[in-house]
Amino acid sequence: MFSTGDWTFGLEIWLPGFPLPIDVKGTAEASALLADRWPVSFGPAFERALAVCAAVTDGLLPADDAKLALIDAAEEVGVPCADRVYFVPDRDDVVDALPLGPRH
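Given the sequence above, the corresponding structure tokens read:
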């Protein structure tokens, strides 16, 4: 049984008609995006992405497989997407934010 949670790294998807990219962090968000906002409702990669999302939700495939399927669906219709790398503070920022105060 595989995890059905969030992906290792999310995706930014630039759908037509949206001024900002949509941040997709996991399979549930990918499924909703495909069902509710995707620019087409047909095509091999689109249909495969829906099937892979369902299989991930059922625990049959690893979560990141849904991300790869969503990327394929985006490429099929020319929707730009890119890995979403979340801000990770450097070590000094983390230590300075601790309740004990900054290191000296």
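The chain has a mean pLDDT of 85. Try to locate this feature in the token string yourself.
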